[in-house]
Amino acid sequence: MSMLLHLTDSAAGELSLTGGKGANLSRLAAMDGVHVPGGFVVTTEAFRALCAGVVASRSEALRATSIPVGLARAGDEIRQAIRDIPIPEEFLRELKAALASYPPDILFAVRSSATAEDLPDASFAGQQDSYLNVRAADVPRAGMDCFASLYNDRAVAYRVKNGYRHEDVAIAVVVQEMVHAQVSGVLFTADPMTSDRLTCVIEAVEGLGEELVSGRKTPFTWRLRGENIKTDSKAAPPLTDSRLRELAAIGKRIEAAFGAPQDIEWCWVDGRFSIVQSRAITTLYPLPESHDGLKRVFVSAGHMQMMTDVMLPLGMSFMKLIALLRMEEVGGRLYIDVTHDTKSAYGKKMIRTKLSATDPLTNQAIEEVLARKDYIRGIPKGPGSFSSFGGWLPILREGIRLYRHNDPADIDCYIERMRDLVARLEERLEPLSGMAAIEAILEDQKQLSQIIYDASGFGMVLATQFIIQKIDDMGKALTGEEHISNRLSKSVEHNPTSEMGLALSEVADLARTYPAVVGYLEAAGEVFRMEDLRQVEGGGAVADAFEKFLRQYGMRATGEIDISKTRFRENPAELVATVLTNIRTLPKGHGKSSFEQGRREMEALIEELSALAQQKLGARKAKKLRRYISFFRNYVGTREYPKYFWICRYDIYKKALMREAKRLTEQGVLREPGDIFYLYLEELREAVRTGRVDYATIDRRKKDYAHFATLTPPRVIFSDGEVPEMTYQKDIPTGALPGLGVSSGVVEGRARVVGSIEDAVMEKGDILVTSFTDPSWTPVFVSIAGLVTEVGGMMTHGAVITREYGLPAVVGVVGATRRIRDGDRIRINGDEGYVEIL
After folding, report:
1. Could you give the residue numbers annotated as active site?
2. Cβ distance 176 to 208 under 8 Å?
3. Which domain holds residue 745?
4. CB 3.0–4.6 Å: which of 215, 516, 692, 808 could bond 786 by disulfide?
């Protein structure tokens, strides 16, 4: 076969011959109404013929290491060897003949096109080298440099990260005539940031597209949806609206031909658009299915639960077993189909009740959907998700009884009853193994929903939410302050989550008295082990305190509603950074003294509000306000208990499951215990019963879920790919990031952008910036100055705990972990709900 193929040759569309870029360009060149600059491809056959020998002789060094330094050194050797290869005369003649068909003054773009590039599931964009404005005489050398770039640091590291074997990847070289563009840019036929398939995004700069890619010029950006065109730029646009629509139409034709949304590079040259590259957008979130062809609307359960991480299959199984709402798995997360809920008055009420307290942007998106009368009229009658739970009446009755009684002894009775149920479950599961253990877990799962939604536990939550509204209404009438209940949340009793933070601060207070213990903690980091701690002076006492903490709170974990997540008891090293932060930044006894200080402040605030109520509203309403506040202060912390006891039971399940995983690994059924997390519960049951697993499925899921973990789940998404627009409507300083203020106050400090609690090494005055927080993060709150999260609402974990600790907080800040850099100095305004990067 020839070492060269023209883009118009039918064989040039084969990925194995021309690489991802070359194959895509060949398909584009064959389309009617799409102009592609003329050119040809130096095929992978040429690469193999010229370079196979030197690559094979030096590839063992690449396979033998995954260490960056070793990879770079091995790659350097191969690159240099390829550059030193003499180009055969026969190949030079063929190449020169192809170049001779162009005018002598033409310059060329010489671009790498690897077989693992511009793929539907991995773009590998920018990993190999390309060269612009190359003279015909220099094309052979530029082509060899492109071949060599298959082994540059970026490409080698990227293949290792994404699981591609070096020997399975080849490279071609695309040679095209340079176009001297008046305007260049990219067209995304779907919005890569929101995953909205109904919106096109176009970026453009004057001149060559390299100016955009390199970042030397700020692009002009438009968003097109139907006939609507939006832009934030005030400068004169380089393209008219009619040309934008023409370009978007070309993009949609290419999308249809390729069968997926596309990232397209284009140029405007001499009155027409030229397409110079097209690849699949690999960052779009997968679409939920509609089994009946109806345009269905789905809400992210993760945003409601404050856990937007990927959930592995075993975790999915457990969540679906206990969920009161019907949930679908989409992109490794759970989504709730609320299509039929939007049709009924009860369904609408339940949606609004749940979403208004959890995530304001999700709530805003659903309100926009509910306003679409034509869409809702077209929805046939059907079972709703939110309206499927019929157990509210006993919860409501118990909530009324608790309010009337207002006796913290009722809380103690509930706690004692729940702890007894947990102890009985552990006693029942401990001696079981094999099918008996799995069956016992499945049997207990049938009761778990009843325990989570226990009338007393949820009655406390329901009654407190009702009282919050009463307090806020009266507080606004008295002081003009919105959500005065936020301030009244500080230093309350009966909150297992905030108590966990105080308990860990006591471990830190004990540890700080032993210099040898502090030294060990600083040196240990991720390899912390309790038995090693016991070997240093004072370590025995600290280890005892640590283990006491883990007995009470060791079941907690970041993203703990996924049973596959590592619990504190499984990896206590996750807490070392928090203990050290307490020791370094806070005085001894800070936790208790802060709690007492907060309690005294609340007593003063209550007296102030009571006096105002007596003065403005009269004795009867003043008495009613005091009763509301009394109940609120007694019960607001208990909203954490249903989840606490849920996670306690999960932890017992997990101990039994890991015993089975270890047994299956010892029998050779599993490669490693953690592989059970890639099995659904019924699949695990079969593995235990038969002693066999399908590792092709496990390996595929590992790859899929690694990809899902890189994606941002939309809050609301339709089955046709539409994602409703969501923006905060508020006046804030120019450049500030809008969010929801959930805990009052203004604070400035250093941003610590943190992905997991084990990386949360904070210093005094630091502001925690993260995707979301759940109860596992609470120990960190003792030492921070404020909180910013991407997800959250008024009654979610971060909001409740920051109010209790008296810390300013802004949640629901879209893209906070990308837009705020670690170390930035920021100001957060918890009163108005925004973040400024100073």
Report:
1. 797
2. no
3. 737-837
4. 808
